[in-house]
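Limitations

Structures in this collection are predictions, not experimental determinations, and the ligand pose is part of the prediction. Treat each record accordingly. The example that follows, with S-adenosylmethionine as the small molecule, is included so readers can see exactly what is and is not provided: the inputs are given verbatim, and the output is the predicted complex.
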Amino acid sequence: MSDDAAFEGVLRQIDDSVPFEPGYYNESYLDRRVTARMRRRGTESHREYERLLRDDATERQALMDALTINVTEFFRNPEMWEVLRGVLRDLTAEQRRVRVWSAPCADGREPYSLAMLACDDPEIDEGRIEVLGSDISEEALENAREGVYHTTRTTDIAAELDLLTEPTRYVERDDDAFRVRSEPRRLVEFETHDLISDGARDPFDVVLCRNLLIYIDVDHKGALFDTLEASLTDDGVLVVGMTESVPPDRTDRYEPIEKRRRVFRRA
Ligand SMILES: C[S@@+](CC[C@H](N)C(=O)[O-])C[C@H]1O[C@@H](n2cnc3c(N)ncnc32)[C@H](O)[C@@H]1O
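Predicted complex:
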């Protein structure tokens, strides 16, 4: 069997055995993740790894975790959050309910960042804000609902919260553990949602879709953007990741609020 055919076999195993659709993602991304797992398990060929996946539930879970890339931070790319601060001040000043969707939200740090910013900034009326966080990964969402984050060798939670004037008002610290307090927590809800196949949600005033598009295969980006567009109000605000962009055939549908920070308004 050629190595290409064996790699296809691995992808089929993924498709059949874990709640993850390999067809959505670009091949170089899938290849990197599978190769990393193979190295970890000392597996020499795709054929051998395919067998391992079939026989070993622990490896199936480990691969699923590796594929869902739920790396995130509180206030990831702080400059973008300064732009969003202005957007939220303006929207809440309009004296109406403001709905925000963080999709994908990974372990919840992005939607909680938004809720904390709203509570922290005296010019944002947090009483008007509702945040939905969604993700395809149940495990990430469990973590999000729990709302507890740990400082580790590679993650400094206190530093991530630097943008807030009063971080301890929003998190309760117990040594290395940080628990999100009820003031920001009550603004946020979580739900499982697949951005490619589950379709649109109620229109939102702000949609954050950051750091997923880079992994998505070109053929599926259209479906993802259809979902985002159908989930935005007529003049809704869309935020993508710092290394991501609106596809060229759709740029006329958005006007930049701050292009360098990837914050756009629907035109
Ligand atoms: C790198 S995280 C991004 C989290 C956050 N937006 C940020 O920028 O820090 C990517 C997330 O996308 C989720 N994901 C992958 N495919 C998805 C899909 N089809 N629909 C919804 N979420 C998906 C993963 O589970 C992961 O939690």
